[in-house]
Here is the input.
Amino acid sequence: MIKLTSYTTFLFLLLTLSVSVKTLADSEYFQAQIAEPYLNIHQGPGKGHTVFYVAERGETISIIKSKTDWYKVETANGIQGWAHASAIALTLDSRQQPLDISLPDFASSQHRTWETGLQIGDFGGSDALSVYGSYFLTDNLSIEASYLETYGLTSNGSGSFIGISHQPFPQWRISPFVSVGGGRYQTQPKSNLAATKKRNDNVSYTAAGLRMYLAQRLLLRLQYSNYLIISNRDDDEEIEAWTLGISAFY
Here is the structure.
């Protein structure tokens, strides 16, 4: 059972990552300069919505997101509204060239090259916190490296792993994956609670889970893992782990 401290840690990390993702998203907003005499900004994504602001030539706008043939924009003085794609196509980028718009969306998540994230959960009764990074060889196949820390009543642990992951249906918004790999896991007993010595063992693992696309570059990841800790003392240990986390793709 995940302890209250772990929930607090996860909420803090979730807030931190959410702020980071928002900052990343803000930094990725396209900046465009109006080249035509004016640009009509509507209250909503459709011609039926009222034009409530007219941006003039030379003004700079940020393009936030798209919906069909409409783009949500923000002016330099903080006014937000919607402009038609035909008007956005006439704006200029920082090089004074016609703007090329390619906002991150679900389609781009299917062809990502990198994915990084953090997860929290249960590791054989201990609290677990992990970070990982994946490099995609194809849309379906990736190499994944991860680092894990565990916090238990009698001992803490840490491990580094590398494996390969297969996602058979990247075109699904909720998409299953399977992974296999191995690494090293170090157990550090709490001296005042345990008499056993520090251990550093080889580990193999199998995993399965689900990825769910959320928005822009953000994914939700649920994972079940089975770890086999291979000891030289003929007492190999099998540990089950459940983790939930969020990640961003590039």
Observations:
- The chain has two domains: 28-103, 108-249.
- The first strand starts at residue 30 and ends at 33.
